[in-house]
Amino acid sequence: MASDLIKIPKCMDYDDLAWERCENLFEPWKNKIFDREVLREIGATIDKYRGGVPDELFAPKRGAFNTWIRMKFKDGGSAVIRFPCPGASVFPEEKVKREIAVMRFLEHFTNIRVPHILHSGMTAESPCGLGPFIIMEYIDHDYDFIDALNIPGRSRQERPILNPDISSERLELVYRQMADILLQLSSHCFSEIGCISKANEDDEFDDKWVVKHRPLTFDMNELVQLGGFPAKLLPQHPFTTASSYYESLAEMHLAHLSSQRNDAIESAEDCRQKYIARCLFRKITREYQLCGDDSGPFKLFCDDFRPGNVLANAEFQMTGALDWEFTYAAPTGFAYSPPFWLILELPEHWANGLDDWIQNYEKVLPVFLRILREREQAAIDRHILKDTDRLSEPRKSWAFDMIYWAKIDRRFFGDGNLEDRLQLLTQEERDNMDAFIQRKLREKKERIYIGE
């Protein structure tokens, strides 16, 4: 843990006015999608590309980023049309294009069952102009893996928490299947950091896949959505080294603190500590202290992969995996990091604080690592994984302060207090700090939302 002389600060909050703006964008769209004529056109669009005799069109359902509608057919099968939700998906057409590419890659090169894509299109082709869409096969299931791990009786409106009384058999069953997915993902490597595509996107028979686009991450979407972050300040291109990507992330953390108008700071002292943390993290990245495999190869990684993405039958055997947006070739450190979802909840949302979260996390981490080693060895023995693809050997922006002071600062700079840390900043960073703090305090009083 960080030195006792440095208090771990409260995480940055979401900008409530930005959140309200997102909800205001979604509401008229939601009302439109429930219109009878709109639903009729949606059904006709699904039928056009799936084929068969329609039986039933189910009511729309919403997830974190998407709304989907299922149509059941007389032959017993079903298809789903899925749209990014306005207000939640900040880059809807980019998101859909990148996810389609990943799903086709996974369908072709892995044993992970993903929904087969029947058709997709951008807003111009969309029924009633609802936005970019994917029509895909519906995968039958009884549960997802959150149902397997969550506290019994906890509603879907509540944030999930790993059942403390879960049986070892149930826990290991889910962890084993999740580990298999992670291993298959990370076994695919690329020479750059970013989103993948066919080398020749116009040739359906081309099997060469490369990084062609910027890494579109969960954090990038959330920064713009809930922080009012200027989209133009996000990464706009792929990266050839891990160090350049880490430095870009460090710049993004500082720009986030600078650009979020509301709910970013508690006080002048809180702002000062947040500013120092981000400058020091940038110093670490500029000095190449985070990079092991700087030049790659870089591993395929899903930024938002979690148990809720994995569908299961009544015995909690996986039937398929969904929602591959925010999947990209990432630095190896991302793939090697223990998954955040082992106890389902994120540390910044844990009611009893970071120390308690760590205690609970460390109870199950050895279980997951043991299972991961077992699944690695089994895959290596079957010659479907190379020994160099092992994961058992060797991040959100709002949680930055908690993680930095608890896990990063002391590791790189030793014991000390904030005054010691201040001396590590450049002269320019120290000169700019007071004006930065005063601006943030003025913004805190004004409490306004400035759109892009």
TrEMBL record:
Organism (species): Talaromyces stipitatus (strain ATCC 10500 / CBS 375.48 / QM 6759 / NRRL 1006)
Name of the protein in question: Aminoglycoside phosphotransferase domain-containing protein
Top-level taxonomic group: Eukaryota
Gene3D superfamilies per UniProt: Phosphorylase Kinase, domain 1
Membrane-spanning parts: none
